[in-house]
Write a structure and sequence with these properties.
CATH superfamily of the largest domain: Formiminotetrahydrofolate cyclodeaminase monomer, up-and-down helical bundle
Shape: flat
Structural class: alpha+beta
Number of helices: 17
CATH topology of the largest domain: Four Helix Bundle (Hemerythrin (Met), subunit A)
Number of strands: 13
Strand content: 5-15%
């Protein structure tokens, strides 16, 4: 699955949109990233830009944006209300999908090193990318702001992590870091009272509220032995919150910033807010997502609410997200469109997954056309997806079978595994066609000079290896799916045992069909050692798939005959 990073650079220019456009144009040059937003501020004289993409593409786009900013923003002439010390003031990386914070830190430091070395801009690494605890806090790095940089850079304790320890009046200094995804999230209340909404906000926010004597609202604040206020922590970690009245909707809301959705997911914030509101005589009517959210956060929410209902979580992604939207009341104030709010959906290229956007009839017609793709590799992956879908169907039917209520979680786990394998096989349907296109692209490269011939040959070999690996992955996923299918033949709803049998036939066919594609593509690869190792494993998978199919069909036949 594709790794995604969000980048949110802040540039010290918020009044001249021609300058900002030159910077965002640099970002949009790079394939693999999508510009999501550019939010200028007149008073702060600062623009917050947001873009998302694959890690290497994000690093390249961020570098070009910082380079352009260093050329067209002169910090010696800058003034604004927001703290700042550089033309590109901060540039945080945020993990979005299929990437860890540790990996994200490495990409942030890669950018920091390149900017420091090539653009000669002093760089401080902050938050998770910091090399020391003191530099984790951006406020420490930026203390003294632009006006204090000359003195700061002369201090050995504040030597930049990358780049020269020299004051550049035009560029200033840039802080590059890695942080968690921040979700701006409002919870709606059935009240118009800001004071009551604030009370709930103080109940949930990490900082909590000051401890008071007597009355918790009007009583005198309690102090410790050093004369400092004593605070009662709130219920949620990584949560900032305040109550306010929204005139547009005529209700009070609790405005929440979740600064680490790994610590406090959106659904946990919603549930805790609902509990605290109810304790104070109010009811949560729904919620509102401000800005964007990673898909996984919505998936986690949907599965949480399904589990509360003791229902299978092994259903489609679309159904899980629909449950999340309904349960969180995200369409309480206005319609919630996942395609406009979920980052991964915004990034989907209409040119991608073309086969899987077709109807069943359209896919069959395309396969039957004179075009060489889709071919046997894509069809094998699709057969495999259908096979594990049948096994998943049996698991979901079994989780709802009357009298089996105490077994819902057992079947839900099987269905969830089946859904994951189904999604991976559907991805491989289109990826097999793209692998074929890679070979065609490599064959079309120029071959006039010796250098061009060598580059063309290397590209052909690389594309061929990929065209071998994709059907090999199909073989492995289809074989893994047999475990789900076999389990459902053995323990699933007996009324659906024939469906498990058909699933086994599909899975075996997918394995053998993909094997044929591995074998024919392997004949064009020069790396014989690689082929020998891979074909040995492929042969073993084929034999195990045949044996497993025979075993499952025996189970099915036995149950049908009874």
């Amino acid at each position: 699955m594709k790794q995604l990073i969000e980048c949110v650079p802040n540039f010290s220019e918020g009044r001249d949109m021609a300058v900002i456009k030159q910077i965002t144009d640099e970002i949009e040059k790079i394939n693999g990233v999508k510009l999501l937003d550019a939010d200028p501020g007149q008073t702060t004289n600062r623009t917050v830009v947001t873009f998302v993409g694959t890690p290497d593409a994000v690093v390249e786009a961020a570098f070009l944006a910082i380079k352009k900013a260093s050329e067209i923003i002169d910090m010696s002439k800058h003034s604004g209300e927001h703290p700042r010390f550089g033309g590109t003031d901060v540039c945080p990386f945020v993990p979005v999908a299929n990437i860890t914070m540790e990996e994200t830190v490495e990409y942030a430091r890669k950018l920091a090193e390149r900017v420091g070395n090539e653009l000669l801009i002093p760089i401080y690494c902050y938050e998770n990318a910091a090399f020391s605890e003191e530099r984790r806090n951006l406020a420490n790095c930026r203390a003294g702001e632009y006006e204090g940089l000359q003195e700061k850079l002369a201090d050995p304790n504040w030597k930049p992590d990358y780049g020269p320890a020299e004051f550049n009046p035009q560029t200033g200094v840039t802080a590059i870091g890695a942080r968690d995804f921040l979700v701006a999230y409002n919870v709606n209340l059935n009240t118009t009272s800001t004071r009551r909404a604030n009370a709930v906000a103080f109940d949930i926010r990490e900082r909590g509220r000051p401890m008071r004597e007597g009355n918790s609202i009007t009583g005198k604040k309690k102090l410790d032995e050093n004369g400092k206020e004593i605070w009662i922590p709130g219920a949620l970690k990584a949560c900032k919150a305040i109550g306010w009245f929204i005139e547009e909707y005529g209700i009070a809301q609790i405005s929440i910033n979740l600064t680490n959705i790994s610590s406090t997911p959106v659904h946990v914030a919603f549930e805790e807010t609902s509990k605290k509101a109810q304790a104070r005589g109010m009811r949560v009517t729904g919620s509102e997502l401000v800005g964007l959210i990673p898909k996984q956060a919505m998936i986690d929410a949907g599965k949480y609410f399904l589990r509360k209902q003791k229902r299978s979580v092994g259903v489609s992604e679309e159904e899980i997200i629909r449950i999340a939207v309904i349960s969180l009341g995200l369409d309480d104030l206005k319609p919630f469109n996942p395609n406009e709010k979920i980052i991964e959906y915004l990034l989907e290229d209409s040119g991608q997954e073309q086969l899987m956007r077709m109807t069943c009839k359209g896919f069959a017609n395309e396969t039957a056309s004179e075009s060489p793709a889709p071919g046997g590799g894509s069809v094998s992956a699709y057969i495999g997806a259908l096979g594990v879908s049948l096994g998943t169907m049996v698991a979901n039917l079994s989780s709802h079978k009357a009298g089996w209520d105490d077994r819902w979680e057992e079947f839900s786990d099987w269905a969830e595994k089946g859904q994951q394998l189904k999604d991976e096989l559907l991805f491989l349907v289109d990826e097999d066609t793209r692998a074929f296109s890679r070979i065609m692209d490599a064959l079309g490269l120029p071959k006039k000079s010796d250098e061009e011939k060598a580059a063309r040959l290397a590209a052909i070999q690389e594309a061929t290896k990929y065209a071998i690996d994709i059907p090999f992955q199909t073989m492995k996923r289809a074989y893994e799916s047999i475990e789900v299918i076999k389990a459902m033949a053995e323990i699933g709803n007996p009324n659906s045992v024939s469906d498990a049998g058909v699933g086994a036939l599909c899975a075996r066919s997918a394995v053998i069909g993909a094997y044929l594609n591995v074998k024919i593509n392997a004949s064009d690869l020069e790396d014989q050692e690689y082929i020998t190792i891979l074909m040995k494993e492929a042969d073993e998978i084929v034999e195990k798939a045949k044996m497993a199919e025979e075993e499952i069909l025996g189970i099915v036949a036995g149950k049908i005959s009874k």
